[in-house]
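Running log. JK asked me to keep both predictions on one page so they can be read side by side. First protein, sequence followed by its tokens:
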Amino acid sequence: MTAHQEPGPWPEGQRPASGEPGSADNPLKITDPRAMRALAHPARIAILAHLVIEGPATATDCAEFALLSPSACSYHLRALARFGFVEEAPASAADGRHRPWRARVTALEFSDNPDDSVAVRTAGRMLKESVQASVDEVRTQYYDRQAEYPPAWRAAAGERLDVLHVTPAELANLRSRLADLISGYRRLDKAERPPDSRRVQALFEFTPWFPPDEFRPAGVRPDGVRPDGIPPDGIPPDGVPPDGSS
């Protein structure tokens, strides 16, 4: 499903149910480069995250944490709405003068397949870099003021670097188990949050620490072309099979 398709609808004020596209356990996969580029703006990432975590908010509410004017936030909200990321939530309005918005998706993922078109890969890279910048900003803000946090929070927070030796199946299983473990602490419903709980950014990254050449047969180029010049599909540039048959 692409992000500009309808990922709902769901009842007013509710998030996608478990298992539905866009829910935390079934992220909505974005394949449309236009949607990726629309979301790649730092302010839109921040606004969507705020609506997911804190619930419906007006453009004026969004302006307070996005550090933008209400009119600028209104513009970004409409841009997100064009691709189905958010929608207006009139039932959440305090009165007729307010126009709150709500997130239509809780979780997203985007394609990073090397076989995708150049447009998709470029837009995906742009979105990935914007998301990473947002993650880094939260980390930097914490470390800049780390000494001001209570000892219990400083002791509980932090990073851990390790090395694993796993098979692809084991790594996939580990990711799934970690996702299951932390899902119980996501608590997007404010009623489920303990009084002394606070928002914490959680990031799990597993990066292959070996060159891809280890899986390539000797003499085969990175693009898959064999030593005899035959490409991965087995059809030579001149269209004539190596044995001369037709």
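And the second, directly underneath as requested:
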Amino acid sequence: MGTKERQREKKKTEEPVKDKTEPSVAVEQTTASDDSAQIPEIVVKVEDGTNATDTIETAVVEPEQMMDTGAAAVTEIVPRWGNIGEAEWMYNIPTRSQDMVLWAEEWGDFLLEWAEFEKIHVLSVSAFISKPPFKDILGKVKAFRSIGNSLVGKDVAAWLDRNREQLRVYWRPLGEWADLVYRWALDTGILRLDVKSLVIQEAEQDFSRLPEEDIHRIMALLVERGFAEWVDKKAGAVVVKV
């Protein structure tokens, strides 16, 4: 065998062997139509290099699966123990004093969460006994006062009347409200603040729903912290310092 023949033979042995059995995958998107709706289909074709009549696998995607379904808006919250059907014992006032304290604390924690969710600052006994899930508690009026006393003892609520029918709930401390009002004033450029204007003209702001006496206290906190100066202390009017 000559030199050229040997070189050609060597070149043949070094060439890679192609795998003719490896299938190729082609993806096409077609649309199937009927009288009522068009359902898009994702068609996956698997073709063998040696056989053009191989099986075609089809996956149909329903329109509902292709829609971007966001989370439903939460309209109410429930206690972690559930409703009366799930935890009936929590809707009965305990008879033992020790159990009563723990029971009132549990409900008090939930009432704070509920009040914040509902943006309620003053809760009346009439509202308490008519709102779920509180309306399902047996002995609702007694429960309202027991839960209220528990919150008052933790300095996160205060009774507004002697008969304990109106409860001011502090789900956010006044100090934090003062910080929010101050930042809002700087962001908007509204530097002259007074109680009546905040309640009437800024109704879309959360702090506008606060009791007027609390807004007056917030103005006083801004002055005490050096963030504002009194313009009319009696009217609760200040000028915010920049």
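Observation for JK regarding the second prediction: The first strand starts at residue 24 and ends at 33.
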